[in-house]
Design brief:
globular; alpha/beta; 38% helix; six-stranded mixed β-sheet; seven-stranded mixed β-sheet; Aldehyde Dehydrogenase, Chain A, domain 2
Length: 504
């Protein structure tokens, strides 16, 4: 590896042991999705670079583990202030590399900042339990201790928010951390690493590496890495879960989604349509919590589809940094082409194409990766556009006769990430939230992303592992519980015998 260097405009470095470093070896290209032009280069790390990051994290871990929880909280508080001061700069990098609009990027950074706010309360969150005199002269208490070197592998769609679901909680709990962001959007993570160092985080506690599958596999198989967090597609989540389990590592792997919104005839359809437009087409549909399937019940269907068509036609598509733009490009040319192929498949399979975004053009950005809002009606569960996670600005509408039928449709889907119901009936909403087999449920809330002090995670093929992200679930994932039973003998205490000890 080269000597530490300042961040160059044309090359995104890795961050190891408190230094920005540009390693030798393979390089990838980072694109501006609005223009289709290369904006930066990024190193694809090999096993040797991952090993250096893991050794730096392992070397820094003992001192950080032993640091007082108040010290950890104060570093987190300074990091929080720096994030707030630099929020727009982080969001601008996201907009440049992902393509989402600047206001949308600002909002996503804010949701990550809220996890840091939660992590600032780590002295309260790490409190254990204590029971006095569980037996004669015997007390029992529990402590939560960090697990060691942790790693996070994060997706392209939220370059700041999803990493901040992971590393602030892990580090506040006393662990050291290696972050491997998507190679498509690497810059925001390096800026956050710089801010964390400025906040007083010791070198080596937080490290950032880049790369493709070779880097991921090096992390999953490294003997110094004790826990891995992942957010991405279901096939990769399953692979990461199985690989980590085989290597004896703790793992939480959040997978894909096909999020449904059930709309009942008694819903406020104007309000519902506005909510669904934002949930389906915001960030060009590249959200793991995007609503991609609407189940319209009974008489709600025809007027709802008409409203969705009218509102979707008004969406302004363009570069994310342009004022007045509602929806930016997709992240890459190949991904845009893949989403477009799903539209082709939907037409071929017989769904009714209400609004076609395949011909979307943006003046001055002819080489950008744009696709307009697309709407299908009369979609059947066996169609490809319903079965697969498209991850683009494509909304499909299915029809059901009853709430019972709508719930059955949602529950039959292999994904169970997020869902919503729109209704004026408390009874219907209560039945839905009770019976639906999904991890996050919204009642007249289209994107029910939990606040930072609640957990984020799905069911079924949307999660591999037992614990969700952030909230107390995050604290549990990044710590291990130790139970201590204590007795202080005196002359009256009988000596222990050979039988199983009992407390009485």
């Amino acid at each position: 590896m080269n000597k530490p260097a300042e961040l160059k405009l044309d090359t995104v470095p890795v961050w190891i042991n408190g230094n920005a470093v540009v390693p030798q070896g393979r390089m990838g290209e980072v694109y501006n999705p609005a223009t289709g032009q290369v904006s930066r280069r990024v190193p694809y790390c090999d096993k040797d670079v991952i090993d250096k990051a893991a050794r730096a994290a392992a070397a820094a871990y003992p001192a950080w583990r032993d640091a007082s929880i108040l010290r950890r909280a104060r570093v987190m508080q300074r990091f929080l202030v720096l994030l707030q001061e630099n929020q727009k700069e982080v969001a601008t990098l996201i907009s440049q590399e992902h393509g989402k609009t600047l206001p949308d990027a600002m909002g996503s950074v804010q949701r990550g900042i809220e996890v840091v706010e939660f992590a600032c309360g780590i002295p309260q969150l790490l409190k254990g339990e204590y029971s006095e005199n569980v037996g004669t002269g015997v007390d029992t208490h529990t402590v939560r201790q960090p697990v060691g070197v942790c790693a996070g592998i994060t997706p392209f769609n939220f370059p700041a928010m999803v990493p901040m679901w992971m590393f602030p909680m892990a580090i506040a709990c006393g662990n050291s951390f290696i972050l491997k962001p998507s190679e498509k959007v690497p810059s925001a993570s390096i800026l956050m690493a710089r801010l964390f160092k400025e906040a007083g985080l010791p070198d080596g506690v937080f490290n950032v590496v880049h790369g493709d599958k070779a880097a991921v596999d090096a992390i999953l198989n490294h003997p110094l890495v004790n826990a891995v967090s992942f957010v991405g597609s279901t096939p990769i989540a399953k692979y990461i879960y199985e690989t980590c389990a085989r290597n004896g590592k703790r793992v939480q792997a959040l997978g894909g989604a096909k999020n449904h919104a059930v709309v009942l005839p008694d819903a406020d359809l104007e309000f519902t349509a506005d909510a669904l437009i934002g949930a389906a087409y915001g960030s060009a549909g590249e959200r793991c919590m995007a609503i991609s399937a609407v189940v319209a019940v009974g008489a709600a269907a025809d007027p709802l589809v008409k409203l969705l068509e009218e509102k979707a036609k008004k969406i302004k598509v363009g570069p994310g940094d342009r004022d007045g733009v509602d929806m930016g490009p997709l992240v890459s040319g190949p991904h845009r082409d893949k989403v477009r192929s799903y539209v082709d498949a939907g037409v071929k399979e017989g769904a009714k194409l209400v609004l076609d975004g395949r011909g979307q053009k943006v003046a001055g950005c002819e080489d950008g990766y744009f696709l307009g809002a697309t709407l299908f009606d009369q979609v059947k569960p066996e169609m490809t556009i319903y079965r697969d996670e498209i991850f683009g600005p494509v909304l499909v509408v299915l029809r059901a006769r009853t709430l019972e039928e709508a719930i059955a449709i949602v529950n039959a889907n292999p994904y169970g990430n997020g869902t919503a119901i729109f209704t004026a009936s408390g009874g219907a909403a209560r039945r839905f939230e009770d019976e639906v087999q999904v991890g996050m449920v919204g009642i007249n809330v289209a994107i029910p992303v939990p606040v930072a002090f609640y957990s984020f995670g799905g069911w079924k093929n949307s999660l591999f592992g037992d614990l969700h992200a952030h909230g107390m679930e995050g604290v549990k994932f990044y710590t291990r519980t130790k139970v201590i039973t204590t007795r202080w003998p005196n002359q009256q205490t009988p000596a222990p015998g050979l039988n199983m000890p009992t407390l009485g």
